[in-house]
Amino acid sequence: MLVEVQSWPYAFPESQDFPKWDQRGNVSGRLLVKERYISDDYISAKGAYVGLASPGDIGSWQRESKNYQFWAKADDDGYFCISNIRTGDYNVYAWVPGFIGDYKYDVVVTITEGSDIDIGDLVYEPPRDGPTLWEIGIPDRSAAEFYVPDPNPKYINKLYVNHPDKFRQYGLWERYAELYPDKDLIFTVGVSDYTKDWFFAQVTRKKDDNTYQGTTWQIKFQLSNVNKNSTYKLRLALASATFSELQVRVNDPKVNHPLFSSGLIGRDNSIARHGIHGLYWLYNVDISGAKFVEGDNTIFLTQARGNNPFLAIMYDYIRLEGPPIFNKKI
Hints:
The strands form 5 sheets. Strands 9, 14, 17, 18 and 20 form a 5-stranded antiparallel β-sheet that branches. A 5-stranded mixed β-sheet has the order 10-13-19-15-16, with no helix packed on it. The termini are far apart. By secondary structure, the protein is mainly beta. The longest helix has 6 residues, at 2-7. It is built from 3 helices and 20 strands. The protein has helices at residues 2-7, 175-179, 194-197, and strands at residues 25-33, 43-44, 49-53, 70-73, 79-85, 88-95, 103-111, 116-124, 132-137, 186-188, 205-206, 212-213, 215-223, 231-244, 246-250, 260-261, 265-267, 281-288, 295-303, 312-321.
């Protein structure tokens, strides 16, 4: 297999649609991260996924399916090399494990036959307004770090017994109602452990009449010294969504109009396909300080759509940021 990988692109195809290795080009460079609330220095984009795809918006490579893409993984110092690229115009895209959001290099890169382009140092500034008040999960575009239950004994796939990919077992969506028969999930910051107390997917709940309804999860946390005149930021990174609608309410679950609604999103079907991620979504929700109180607060996350067991959201990472600190070094 390794011999075949290193032999690509092959020399034997005679089609003009398959350029030989010397008719392609290469791109290299280094990706750095600038995150002023973590470090005053640049951070190496260790393990970043860097790729060339058709020119488009940030993150458009996820949905672009008609043209070619070429990707590589950066080393520990953020250096990358993408080889054997077909001629044409591309944007450079990237995402970095450990940081939310997507990177795009705004300059169009033109690949010609035999070109070897060094684009130098690129700097990604992830979305960030203020200091982290609390966070849930790991920003890696996967829900694998959350609680994945053991399967119903009737449905066990023996190929995945004692396997790290527990999520590949059939019927895990049904375990949610068994674990939370009367009330939906409640996560208390500073007390709960997301590896044990955050179900890997916000699925629907099956009712007695065999219909399904959406669910509302709660994140409980404490705040001191609330700045009523400032804006807080809730970052919601989703690893997957299937015909879902995510609604956000703060301290009042019954208010008619949510503070935020995603609208109908997603067609991944990751739950039914026993996956742990699909397309990535990132929502940045402004929350007025006036909506918070000193002491106990609750954020309500509602997946509002029902109808079947596979309408669901998988969270990647959630973070609440406080108001900006303007004297923080940049």
